[in-house]
Design a protein that fits this description.
Blueprint lengths: L5 E5 L3 H12 L15 E3 L5 E5 L5 H6 L5 E5 H7 L4 E6 L5 E8 L4 H4 L5 E6 L2 H11 L2 E6 L15 E6 L3 H5 L2 E10 L1 E6 H6 L1 H14 L3
Parallel strand pairs: 1-3, 1-4, 7-8, 7-9
Antiparallel strand pairs: 2-3, 4-11, 5-11, 6-9, 6-10
Helix pairs in contact: 1-8
Bound molecules: phosphoribosyl ATP (PRT) and magnesium ion.
Amino acid sequence: MSEQNLTIALSKGRIFDETLPLLAAAGIEPVEDPEQSRKLIIDTNHADIRLVIVRASDVPTYVRYGAADFGIAGRDVLIENGGEGLYQPLDLQIAKCRMMVAVPQGFDYAAASQPGCRLRIATKYPDIAAEHFAAKGVHVDIIKLYGSMELAPLVGLSDAIVDLVSTGNTLKANRLEAVEHICDISSRLVVNKAALKVKHARLQPIIEAFAAAIGQ
Ligand code: PRT
Ligand code: MG
């Protein structure tokens, strides 16, 4: 009986907000708003479906180990922290943004990023950054940060940053400009592979409702 309960891993904020309409399309409604509650386990209108609220970058871990049956994670997190071992049936087209290189306004990035040049890059995404610059033949010293990347070039920690940009307001407020597009990012449905088999009858209608809600 109990193995037919469902646990869904979500992060607070934009992913939670943009997931609500998809959950609603599958008939699932959280009984509490995680922004208002300190609870990390949120019940839903179904006695056997619950949400667990975790850090965005921890969603794949909860799902991989089966602590959650499925979750929603940004492509940035899946590339950088690993989507291996997870079934990824749908790109949900939510929490969309772009992975960009940004520099202080006026910095001559074209000259500084010629093949053979060396740049200091601050980022939360060292693997994505390393791969991008390796493909350009630019040498990089990568400085791993956990947040507020925009500060690094302003105080001389790095020449440039690799970070997510959506409106561009954060860059603008810090007198930075995006100079290169690395890739588009959106969030994906990630499902535990064992759960997909054992709980197929429960999971399949939810996956189908999500797909229908995004027009796929
Ligand atoms: O915040 P926390 O450190 O807990 O974790 P997180 O930043 O990984 O989580 P969260 O909830 O902020 O983001 C979850 C997911 O949303 C990310 O993994 C991305 O896939 C996606 N997403 C979409 C974004 C953005 N847009 C975004 N704009 N994640 C972060 N940002 C940040 C960006 O890093 C920058 O600091 O917002 C700032 C830029 O925004 P604009 O609108 O000023 O350009
Ligand atoms: Mg954040």
